[in-house]
């Protein structure tokens, strides 16, 4: 293939991508597009081809023999680049809605790929808002969010797709207050169903998504008492992935929550360092209020964190752990500082902290990379 | 027109009826002495209904009953009546009778699935309060076959599973119910309760497992300690050949180690890794015995004998069992030979003797007074060795 007129090359693909075209030609064209999405320049090229993008979306949601899987994987790669969200949505504004339908369809074989596209898209505010709107659309019986939670929490919801990427989707959505309000509804059983997933062994993507969701929920300090109380009992689920096969004394054991007592000698800690850090951060959020701190202390968190600290191989996770231990064993703060989330920070200090935060954030972005990507097939 | 005529006849009849009593007393009234009992017999004023209705005793009631339970009414009507009857019994907490009524209703096999589902669900509730959780569960499952989304049946089913300690099932049923009504408080409470009980149960299992493992490790350590000392153990029946003995032996020993012997003592190890054995002393002269519950392997026989025979025991008729006079023997049952043990030996030294076999984890020794006639008699005809 000549490189001299890539635009023209790309345009040539378009007729083969339309619905109704011969299946084998469609498949080949889709594979080629997928290969293009594997590189930066390839993606930029495709971004300028609105008609092609539209055709790609049509294919991604089309029934067999259409090459829906490759089309979806191409979209995953495109959506991984935040700069491409605008052209994608401009080319096909119904993209979030249609992919959502696929992701939540129990019969759709490429639901995981659809979810992965949404996971990438929802990292950015504009597509996230579009997704929230799509979920809010009135559905007879179940709300879209309820369906999403159900799809995530019900094993075997989709016999052909594991739907791990619904975890990060929910995590991104939980950045919005409306989502958190739904998750933390005391008259329903929503957040409780997410808790066991912090131990989900087969996917760090799912675990990470759920823990991220829980962390975002814990910004709502009005709900802390309820979250830490018996109706939700969130703390053991946050501590369990951080606990190892420790041999505590009988007395120490009795102080721990039931789920952390007498763990077998082969108990493994959460292998992903980022998730460990998020778990600690979540517990840290729960210590923002005085009653919350008391509950966290009373439920024996210190013992688990102490052991974690001596085991923890990652330095930045260890530092986070240290900070939390300090809060747990430290004295109660002075008056006016009881709720650390509501403290009035002096302007100068605020500016400094923001700068620090910004720098930290940049560093993290570099480390984590641009989000889930699908592998591209190389052209034959 | 017709009505006026009727009215006229009625008035006439009434007048003549009333006029009768000017000459005759009213015969249909209650008797003064037993008016309360007679009052009770009138169905409208009954406080308690009789469980069996005898048509001769109580014709009015029998009449009413035959109207209600008339076989000519439709099965649906009959079933509905039985349902109402069951509900009444239920309100009075007479759950057994309620079950009977609901069962009768179901027997009608009426064509209304809603009604049957309610009958099953209500019977399930009555069974639940009778403590028959399995039967209750069967009934709600039957109810759900007819009406899968019957919320009351689902709630009852979840409660049954909870009582039956099927916590995972209880949570699943609650989740199914919450899909129908996401805010049903009873389901939310049940779910939280079942989940917590499930997690507590898992903890209990882990605790028991760990305890068992610890015990096994301890027993294994004891077994190793015994082996390391070259002490020979023997099952109840000594004389089995070495091969079969060694396999079955470890199990037997481990079993023996885990259970206490009938006297409530067992082999133990101290912090320095030294063993203490329960040791049985037999006094054949007087058919008496003593059990030392924890004979430290490094302590000497004489030390224990000094304590045990500090005062001569009550059965010592000749008052001759003093520590200095005593001789200690062990028997090699295989060869029917005796070995005399110097009292200054430690237990460990004797246990390690090539011909000493510990039976049932309790070392046993014979004690008698060396110079006594009994002892001489006892030892006559037996081969006696001296242990150094």
Automatic annotation (TrEMBL), chain A:
InterPro entries: ARM-like, ARM-type_fold, Hgh1, Protein_HGH1_C, Protein_HGH1_N. Residues 104-277 form the Protein HGH1 N-terminal domain. It comes from the Eukaryota. It holds the Pfam family DUF383. Residues 348-380 are annotated as: Disordered. Transmembrane segments: none annotated. Residues 282-335 form the Protein HGH1 C-terminal domain. Gene3D superfamilies: Leucine-rich Repeat Variant (1.25.10.10). Coiled coil: none annotated. Belongs to the HGH1 family. This is Protein HGH1 homolog. It comes from Rangifer tarandus platyrhynchus (Svalbard reindeer).
From TrEMBL, chain B:
Residues 180-225 form a coiled coil. InterPro entries: Csn1/TTC4_wheel, TPR-like_helical_dom_sf, TPR_rpt. It comes from the Eukaryota. The keyword Repeat applies. The keyword Repeat applies. Residues 271-366 form the Cns1/TTC4 wheel domain. Keywords: Coiled coil, Repeat, TPR repeat. It holds the Pfam family Wheel. PANTHER family: TETRATRICOPEPTIDE REPEAT PROTEIN 4. Belongs to the TTC4 family. This is Cns1/TTC4 wheel domain-containing protein. The lineage of its organism: Eukaryota, Metazoa, Chordata, Craniata, Vertebrata.
């Amino acid at each position: 293939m000549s490189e001299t007129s890539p635009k023209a090359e790309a345009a040539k693909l378009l007729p083969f991508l339309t619905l109704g075209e011969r299946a084998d030609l469609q498949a080949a064209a889709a594979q080629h597009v997928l290969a293009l999405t594997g590189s930066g320049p390839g993606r930029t090229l495709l971004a300028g081809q609105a008609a092609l993008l539209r055709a790609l979306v049509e294919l991604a949601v089309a029934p067999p023999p259409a090459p829906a899987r490759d089309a979806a994987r191409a979209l995953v790669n495109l959506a991984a680049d935040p700069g491409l969200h605008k052209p994608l949505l401009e080319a096909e504004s119904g993209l979030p809605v249609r992919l959502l339908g696929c992701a939540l369809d129990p019969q759709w074989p490429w639901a995981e790929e659809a979810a992965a596209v949404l996971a990438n898209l929802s990292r950015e505010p504009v597509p996230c808002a579009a997704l929230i709107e799509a979920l809010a659309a009135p559905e007879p019986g179940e709300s879209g969010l309820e369906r999403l939670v159900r799809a995530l929490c019900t094993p075997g919801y989709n016999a052909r797709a594991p739907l791990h990427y619904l975890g990060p989707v929910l995590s991104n959505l939980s950045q919005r207050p409306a989502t958190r309000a739904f998750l933390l509804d005391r008259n329903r059983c929503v957040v409780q169903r997410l808790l066991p997933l912090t131990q989900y062994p087969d996917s760090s993507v799912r675990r990470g998504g759920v823990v991220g969701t829980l962390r975002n929920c814990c910004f709502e300090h009005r709900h802390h008492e309820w979250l830490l109380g018996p109706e939700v009992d969130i703390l053991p689920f946050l501590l369990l992935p951080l606990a190892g096969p420790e041999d505590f004394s009988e007395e120490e054991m009795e102080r721990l929550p039931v789920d952390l007592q007498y763990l077998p000698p082969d108990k493994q800690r959460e292998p992903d360092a980022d998730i460990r850090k998020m778990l600690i951060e979540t517990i840290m959020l729960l210590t923002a209020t005085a009653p919350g701190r008391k509950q966290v202390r009373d439920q024996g968190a210190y013992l688990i964190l102490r052991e974690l600290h001596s085991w923890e191989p990652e330095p930045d996770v260890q530092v986070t752990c240290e900070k939390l231990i300090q809060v747990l064993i430290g004295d109660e703060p002075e008056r006016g500082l009881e709720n650390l989330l509501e403290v009035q920070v002096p302007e100068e200090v605020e500016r400094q902290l923001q700068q620090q935060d910004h720098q930290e954030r940049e560093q993290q972005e570099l480390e984590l990379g641009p989000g889930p990507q699908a592998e591209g097939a190389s052209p034959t | 027109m017709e009505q006026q005529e009727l009215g006229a006849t009625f008035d006439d009849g009434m007048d003549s009826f009333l006029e009768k009593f000017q000459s005759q007393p009213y015969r249909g009234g209650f008797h003064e002495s037993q008016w309360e009992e007679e009052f009770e017999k009138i169905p409208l004023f009954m406080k308690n209904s009789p469980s069996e209705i005898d048509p001769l005793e109580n014709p009015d009631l029998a009449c009413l009953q035959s109207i209600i339970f008339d076989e000519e009414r439709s099965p649906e009507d009959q079933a509905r009546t039985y349902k109402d009857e069951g509900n009444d019994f239920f309100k009075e907490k007479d759950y057994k009778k309620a079950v009977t009524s609901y069962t009768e209703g179901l027997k009608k096999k009426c064509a209304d699935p809603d009604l049957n589902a309610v009958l099953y669900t209500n019977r399930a509730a009555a069974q639940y309060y009778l403590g028959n959780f399995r039967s209750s569960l069967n009934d709600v499952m039957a109810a759900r076959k007819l009406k899968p989304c019957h919320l009351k049946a689902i709630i009852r089913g979840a409660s049954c599973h909870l009582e039956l300690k099927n916590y995972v099932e209880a949570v699943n049923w609650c989740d199914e119910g919450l899909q129908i009504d996401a805010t049903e408080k009873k389901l939310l409470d049940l779910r939280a309760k079942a989940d917590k009980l499930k997690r507590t149960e898992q903890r209990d299992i882990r605790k028991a497992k760990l305890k068992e493992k610890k015990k096994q490790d301890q027993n294994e350590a004891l077994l190793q300690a015994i082996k390391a000392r070259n002490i020979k153990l023997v099952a109840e029946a000594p004389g089995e050949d070495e091969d079969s003995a060694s396999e079955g032996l470890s199990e037997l020993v481990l079993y023996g180690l885990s259970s206490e012997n009938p006297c409530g003592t067992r082999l133990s190890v101290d912090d320095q890794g030294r063993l203490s054995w329960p040791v049985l002393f037999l006094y054949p002269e007087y058919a008496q015995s003593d059990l030392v519950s924890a004979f430290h392997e490094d302590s000497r026989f004489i030390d224990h004998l000094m304590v045990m025979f500090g005062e001569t025991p009550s059965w010592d008729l000749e008052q001759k069992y003093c520590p200095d006079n005593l001789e200690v023997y062990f028997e090699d049952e295989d060869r029917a030979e005796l070995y005399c043990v110097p009292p200054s030996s430690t237990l460990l030294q004797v246990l390690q003797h090539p011909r000493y076999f510990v039976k049932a984890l309790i070392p046993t020794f014979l004690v008698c007074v060396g110079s006594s006639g009994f002892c001489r008699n006892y030892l006559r005809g037996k081969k006696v060795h001296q242990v150094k």
